[in-house]
Design brief:
This protein is mostly beta strands. The protein folds into two domains: 82 residues, no CATH class; 176 residues. It is built from five helices and 26 strands. The protein has a seven-stranded parallel β-sheet. Strands 12-15-18-21-24-26 form a six-stranded parallel β-sheet. The N and C termini lie far apart (61 Å).
Amino acid sequence: MKQITQTPGGRRYTGNDFLAMQDLTLKLTEGFYSQFGNFIPYGCEVTGGNIAPGIVMLDGKACLFAGAQGITAPYYVKQVVVNENVPYKIGEGLGYQTYMAQVCADDEAGAFRLDNAKDFKKVMTLNSEFTYIVDSDEALAAWAANAPGNDYSSVLVKKGTWTLNGNINLSNTGTKIITGQADNLLVFTGDTAMNAIHYAYYSTSPQAEIKCITGVNIRINYPGGCGFFCCYNLVDCTAYSLNNNIIHGFANCNVLTRCFGVGSGFGSDYNSSTGNGTVGAGFKDCRILFGCSGTINSGNPTYRDCYMSTMSETNPVANTAEGGWNRS
């Protein structure tokens, strides 16, 4: 990196020297923090509909947040650059750029959900809390193959897109906790129908095998199957099909919170008038869903045979875009 220097005797300093000093600081701080994705280094505590001022890391930039009052959850912010002109020797020109975090709608470009963000303490201790880190296609493949010499009990999926030809059997790997950094994405491909991230079906209690899967985003490109299968305690996870084959986002999963699933495909026996027959769904045969939702994909249902009871088919989860808080 560029550093200011001089020979004995001194020299005149210009605006470029100040820019060099600023560049040195920014590259060190923002370069370090950018590896953790979007998070809150300071402040932004939420109390009711009020958010305290603070700093938010957005797309690798430290953004000032002035705070907000009287807004409704969920809370989203986006990066905004404020330009300020100053006098020059001749006329005026750009003198300062301030990066701000501004409250926005959830569908605006660059929107980041503030009330789900990791705080500074969580980010700084993130790596030490996990026994294995997925930060490349090779690391993902080693986890899936249960390669010897690694402890896969607690896995961190780092920011980035990682691709695997195959799937991950969590019973084989002994994985109990999976946590995804912001902007992580796991893409699963294969030539046969399979379940991308799954627990060995009914071999033992899923509650004992899988403690929690948080913030993991997957995309599925199989001839059939699903994304998350027979997993327990999923929070803020997403699962999408990348083709038109019969694929479920989540299937046979228990206790899901704020998850988003999109299914695809229709069987030859499917009747669009009655809804009977084989069809890919965002959530299939899942139990106890809170605030879960999905986009209707060419007529595919968000929920199929999903209930708010673990032992009986009572209180079906409503097939509405508002999600699992609504029950018919």
